[in-house]
Design goal:
The complex is a heterodimer. In chain A, the strands form 3 sheets. In chain A, strands 2-1-4-5-6-7-8-9 form an 8-stranded antiparallel beta sheet, covered by helices on one side. In chain A, strands 10-15-16-3-17-18 form a 6-stranded mixed beta sheet. Chain A is built from 9 helices and 18 strands. The two termini of chain A are 34 Å apart. Chain A is globular and about 65 Å long. In chain B, helix 1 packs across helix 5. Chain B has one domain: Rossmann fold, CATH 3.40.50. The chains are: A alpha+beta, B alpha/beta. Chains A and B meet through helix 6, helix 7 and helix 8 of A and helix 1 of B.
Chain lengths: 374, 163
């Protein structure tokens, strides 16, 4: 799982480190614009590389992504992972010379347990065995480098990055139509039906976990079915009531909150399928009624009982209550020209209960004031 | 969402430390989180008692499936505080109202663990029927209520986990 994320010169994140070691689940809180969603965007860059969606730098980095347009200073990303019993570090940095039409890669490297798997500087790539080759400096090496078959580090890291669930679901875009199975959920969860279809095809036994979850939150849920629709597609249909005469409802006709329940059930079922899942959910309380929030968050946090990792952002008091001081990080930023700062909530003093202190702006307000003076 | 047709338990914490105990407790894999409803912190033991009287006595009377656990700091006044609570719990709902008194800060210091970890350990001991942390000096005075909880609440709150 993710132990550490380091980012430099990317949007509001400058020399920014999020340390998640010992935190199988964590919450990011902070004012609007403090950088919570930017953390997700950083992880999306890694995800995109792992999914081979973006081998070319121009698909990953836009000029506006450099902090205050400082294109002469390298933009750096580094992620430290512990997968199985091995520790991996993957790093990549970019700059944007004045005469270039796109950013280029300055450095890129992958190490496993402190040993280099590959390292590059500009166009020169060096493999662990000493072999070297040239690679266009606008092309990311991780998706294209091949090493000896017995070296599993590359595949392990790529598979993890590709499998990360980074979501800020938009229920209106979640139509429930599947034309091609996929295990790569997109950010707005528009391909949830394709992902659920792929999961249930590959691991049908996890349907029990999916079913248990959904029945727990939608009491008259009966089952889901993929009904052929169009030439080669399937529509996800949700059935309610009794087996003898269930009511069938197309997924896209469900409420926004119900769609989020199905998404959450998918994430929990996926996590139980054998390969623990990393999930970052931006504001998971969106679309939920007040009494639903607590259990929704608790269930996602409980993924960690099966080796998963859950990272959330939230402004919702009920979601915030379901985390503790030790599992909550506060992001602050004094203005658009200043970088985001992240601190564990345990380092920020308060009087009285947490939600009251947040409402009075004692915690974040004080931190910002101290930051401004500093 | 509270399902009044199934046995359920509300947990009313005095402060954030007790809230964090609950977070750890309900995070245990054996807990059926659909049967337990953590409430916002009341803000002091007296506020817990007032909220119990104002809101939850009626709730317990309206639904025989409802139970409540009040988590309070005893502040080295356990017997006095327990007497105050017992005096305010009506006889007709007393079998479904429980108190659990602790000293979170001292317990954290003594065990060198955060509240979530303590809550999780306590849930684990409930699940496995063991008693180590529950017999700690800051918790053992809860034995009577814990015995009642084991009889009344544990059967619907804890699931049998598959091997």
């Amino acid at each position: 799982m993710i132990e550490r994320l380091y980012v430099h010169n990317f949007r509001g994140l400058d020399n920014f480190t999020l340390s998640l070691a010992g935190h199988p689940s964590a919450l990011l809180i902070g004012r609007n614009g403090s950088g919570k969603s930017t953390v997700r965007q950083c992880l999306e860059l890694f995800q995109s590389i792992g999914r081979r969606n973006s081998r070319r730098v121009h698909e990953l980095i836009s000029p506006g992504a450099f902090t205050q347009h400082r294109t002469d200073i390298p933009m750096k990303f580094e992620i430290e992972l512990v997968l199985g019993r091995r520790r991996f570090t993957y790093a990549i940095s970019f700059d944007w010379p004045e005469t270039f039409r796109a950013a280029r890669i300055v450095d890129e490297s992958l190490s496993a347990d402190g040993t280099s798997v590959f390292a590059r500087h500009h166009a020169d790539v060096q493999l662990a065995g000493g072999a070297t080759f040239g690679l266009d400096w606008h092309t990311v090496a991780l998706p294209v480098v091949n090493v000896r078959p017995d070296n599993t580090a590359l595949q392990t890291v790529k598979a993890f990055l590709a499998s990360m669930i980074l979501t800020a679901p938009v229920p209106a875009l979640m139509a429930g139509f599947s034309d091609e199975p996929s295990l790569e959920l997109d950010m707005h969860a528009t391909n949830l039906a394709s992902c659920l279809s792929a999961l249930l095809t590959q691991k049908p036994a996890v349907y029990r976990n999916f079913d248990t979850y959904v029945r727990g939150v939608i009491t008259d849920f009966f089952e889901v079915e993929f009904v052929p629709r169009g030439e080669s597609g399937y529509q996800l249909v949700v059935k309610f009531g009794e087996a003898t005469d269930p009511l069938s409802v197309d997924f896209n006709a469900l409420s926004d909150g119900e769609k989020c329940f199905i998404l959450s059930a998918y994430v929990v079922a996926l996590n139980s399928a054998g390969s623990p899942v990393f999930c970052m959910w931006d504001e998971p309380d969106n679309h939920l009624s007040l009494p639903e929030v607590s259990q929704f968050i608790t269930r996602l946090r409980k993924m960690t009982n099966q080796g998963g990792q859950f990272l959330a952002t939230s402004h919702h008091p009920e979601a915030i209550r379901r985390f503790s001081d030790e599992t909550t990080f506060v992001l602050t930023r004094t203005g658009h020209l200043a970088p985001s700062v992240v601190r564990p909530l345990t380092e920020l003093p308060r009087d009285g209960d947490l939600i009251g202190a947040l409402l009075r702006d004692e915690i974040i307000g004080t931190a910002v004031a101290v930051q401004s003076v500093g | 969402m509270v399902n009044v047709f199934k046995p359920h338990v509300f947990v009313l914490p005095e402060d954030d430390e007790n809230r964090e105990f609950i977070n750890g407790f309900i995070g245990h894999p054996a807990i059926d989180d659909g049967q337990i409803y953590p409430l916002p912190v009341a803000g002091g033991w007296a506020a817990v008692l007032k909220e119990f009287e104002d809101v939850y006595v009626k709730r317990l009377r309206d639904s025989h499936n409802a139970h409540i656990i009040m988590l309070i700091d005893y502040d080295n006044e356990f017997e006095t505080r327990r007497a105050k609570f017992q005096a305010k719990i009506p006889v007709d709902v007393a079998d479904r109202a429980f108190g659990c008194a602790d000293e979170p800060k001292d317990l954290k210091k003594a065990t060198r663990r955060c509240c979530e970890e303590i809550g999780r350990l306590l849930a684990n001991e409930c699940d496995t029927g063991t008693e180590q942390l529950w017999t700690h000096g800051h918790l053992r005075h809860n034995n009577d209520d814990r015995a009642r909880l084991t009889t009344t609440v544990k059967p619907f709150l804890f699931r049998q986990l598959r091997a």
